[in-house]
Amino acid sequence: MFEIMGFIFETYGLIIAALATSLILSLWITPRIRHFAMRAEIYDKPAEHKKHKEPIPQLGGVAIYLAFLVATLILLPMTSPVITLLLGATMIVFLGIIDDIFIAKAWAKLLGQILIAFITYKSGIRIDSFTIPNGNVMLLEFFSLPLTIFWIIGIINAVNLIDGVDGLAAGITAISAGCLAAIAFMTHQPLVGVLLLVLLGSCLGFLRYNFAPAKIYMGDAGSMLLGYVLATVSIMGVLKSSATLSLFVPIFAMGIPIGDTLFSILRRAKNRKPIFGADNGHIHHKLLQRGLTARQVALSEYAITLVLGIISIVICTIGGK
Question: Degrees (nearest 5) of the Cα angle 215, 254, 182?
């Protein structure tokens, strides 16, 4: 009895500590990064596929990164997977900063993502198996490397593509992280759960300044960071789960960015346009064209993400039986 109560208090203590620490850090760091970006004149300037009319300070992703980094260092032991995650997160943020300031070529950014995904794989965070519906475990062997790199790059760019409306990427990531954290605790993976809650808190603190009308943008440094952390932590946790339908859990939890990316690829291929080019065909663009405000678009997609996240939890519950 006392052991069960101790476990409950310890688990809830971790949850509260992870959320509170990352949230407070993000709330404190974000306005300071905004002030720095303004002094350094690092802005996201208006463009054809962008909806803002005035330059908005960039580098919000650095605030999310610092909150995530410091909270993780405070709360978690520096095991090999955690070190690998933080190393990869640091590299992806630097890649994003280069793009935010100098506007890197799409192919150069992709090569950088591939390199970071490869380093992550070689450091031990990889998709090497998954449980199929009949309950057996399928070993990927040769396909482990390409599938791991494809998953990481895919989620990085999926989050990057939905970052087109104030608060959208941060809010959807927060909801996805919260749902995946619930699954991690359900499947007895507290380390993964804490990492996801730290990501959740970091996003919520940033949303205070990023929700419409945004006072700061996360830039590629932020969107690629969020995608990398979601992709990597899902490999560490949910995709390692013994749940029969574990492969589908993160796909549902991150349904909007994944679905939007797939439709974007098909749309651009059909129109013979560059896959990594910018256009006005994303879900949030369509909703804006129908007359919804930026806030309404964000809240609508939050609601859809929450429903999909709940479905992912149900899938995990059914698959675990």
Answer: 95
